[in-house]
Amino acid sequence: MPAFDPSVSRGTSMPARAKLAAALLAGFAATVLAVASAGAEPLGVTVRNESVNATCAETDNVTLKLVSDDVQKFNISVRHPAYVGMLLADNTAPDWETCDMSGDPVVPADAKAPLPPSAAAPGAKPGPNPAAASPAAPKRITIFETPDMWLTGFIFPSFWRAATVPVRIGGDVTQGLHMVQLWMRVDGKAEEVLVIYPPDGYMRARPMSPAHMRDTAYGSSFLVGPVEQAERPIVRLKEVGFTPQTRTFTLHYAAGGKARMQVVKVGSDELRLEVQLDGTPPGTFAALRSMYVTEGNADVARVAWRSLGTGKGGAGGLMGEAPVLSFADAQNVSMLWAGRLVPSRHNTSAPDFIFDGFSGR
């Protein structure tokens, strides 16, 4: 059942629910206007909805693709849902009801993947990675660390794609990683804020948790770069680099080109990424992947978008809003929001996503 204040649950009176809905929509509108008004002269992109119906809550049946031949820069803002202040408890447990994953590919981990020098014993040369030698459990290694920021790599017993993408920090290279976590310490509190899966290019992000919550959930995934179909939408990475001084990930693509994705804000209200594409192929340059079964069982239930107007900075454009499954493709979009206005029993605290700040090559 949804984990939120009972005073706003099914037993709430109609006037109270109307006031709640108005407050949520007002907060959402303020967020949209604040984000849409920031940044340089905007460029409109196409948003394609390839979402389908599903009954399994662990299936990414929501796919929103962002398409343009001209985009070079854009922003991704990750914010708590409008109702986060009402949450007294959170539901982050997986829901495998009606799910059948038996047909998913299974690729064992590579036991020969070498550790970087920084993760090996002092004075040792890079050699076979003991973290990948045993298939019994996931193995974790710290590949970069300061008191306020660290990068952790994971090797799973198996994954749906081979872990062949190296992760580079300066001269240190780590092979065989299925997942990389970025941890940040802000105001004395340490949390994981960003995850990258090098084998398929999927990423997740979340803001620091609000004061009344110990932690919050991940929900939707996103892709940055040339998206292609390989059983599901993926981005084929050639290498992932990280520059700690600027908190910037450099994503090198098998299809050509690269992207610099900088973590420019980490706070309890928002995590914001600035992305700059360099030499990437035209077409789909980003995508959001999520799940929707019902409005009360979804990581993304609704979308809203702003089209460019003819005034300065795109002023005069129109706002649109729709349920995610019935949303039709939109053209000339300068801002896309995807999230929830009603608490869900699946990843109740998972964040909303805003894509905006599109500018040309």
UniProtKB/TrEMBL annotation:
<protein>
    <submittedName>
        <fullName>Uncharacterized protein</fullName>
    </submittedName>
</protein>
<feature type="signal peptide">
    <location>
        <begin position="1"/>
        <end position="34"/>
    </location>
</feature>
<keyword id="KW-0732">Signal</keyword>
<feature type="region of interest" description="Disordered">
    <location>
        <begin position="108"/>
        <end position="135"/>
    </location>
</feature>
<feature type="compositionally biased region" description="Pro residues">
    <location>
        <begin position="114"/>
        <end position="129"/>
    </location>
</feature>
